[in-house]
Amino acid sequence: MTKAPPRNDKFNERRAELGEAALQTLADLGYARTSLREIAQNSAFSHGVLHYYFTDKLDLILCSVRQYKARCVTRYDEVTTTSTRFEQLLDGFTEALGDTLRNETTMHRLWYDLRSQALFEEALRDDVEAIDKSLEKMIWRVMQRLSELAGSPVKASSEAAYAMLDGLFQQCLLKHLSGDKKAIAAMQASVRQVLLQLIDAPTAAPRAKPVRRKLATA
After folding, report:
1. From its phi and psi, is residue 151 left (phi > 0), alpha (psi between -120 and 50) or beta?
2. Distance of alpha carbon 50 from alpha carbon 45, whole angstroms
3. 184 φ, ψ to 5°?
4. Name one Pfam family in it (predicted).
């Protein structure tokens, strides 16, 4: 794939606008069934306009997915920075995982579709690898904060932790798309299990025994 030549800021802003507008069509149709012409038919933009700003469908797809994933990588930052207890972050993170899978199903499907296509399309690999690395860093920020709150180290590398959680997420996505209504809850439970195996939860401080007062005798 020949990448579109760099232009001025207005040109790049227009590309970003078109990439955002095409995102839903891409998510609905997937990589194999999407062309610039198909995107034009499902959007307010003509085929000629899209072809002017993008060299081909790979250029457009990567532009769209980069923008979407750039938002994704900050998805858990709020719960990570605001949580002050281990259990609070554990609950908030697993809840956010379920919410994004439920509410943005087709977008996540597009990402896994694109990542699989990178096995065959060499032109996709650099971009997919860069996006994947940013997602790994996103998960690692959560892991590090959990580690801080627990006062216990993470018993795995960043790559291993990401691979485990990403595998559970992708497995759940397939089940959810197949109509499994229990898939998200099962994924959340599995993620909790993995996290508690990778990071020792803080132990609750033992409660002080109540002091019995002796009754005064007459």
Report:
1. left
2. 7
3. -65, -45
4. TetR_N
Helices 57-72 & 9-29 angle (0-180, nearest 10): 90
Of 201, 191, 97, which is closest to residue 154 (Cα–Cα)?
Answer: 201
CB atoms within 10 A of CB 9: 7
Which pLDDT score, from 0 to 100, does residue 9 have? Answer: 82
Taking a C-beta distance cutoff of 8 angstroms, is the pair 162, 136 a contact?
yes
Distance set, CA 71 to CA 28, 121, 186 (Å): 19, 25, 26
CATH 1.10.10.60, domain 9-65, yes or no:
yes
Query: Rounded distance, CA 75 to CA 48, Å?
Result: 35
In the structure, what pLDDT confidence band is assigned to residue 108 with cuts at 50, 70 and 90?
A: very high
pTM metric for this prediction: 0.82
Region of 30 on the Ramachandran plot (φ > 0 left; ψ -120 to 50 alpha; else beta)? left
3-state secondary structure of 13: helix
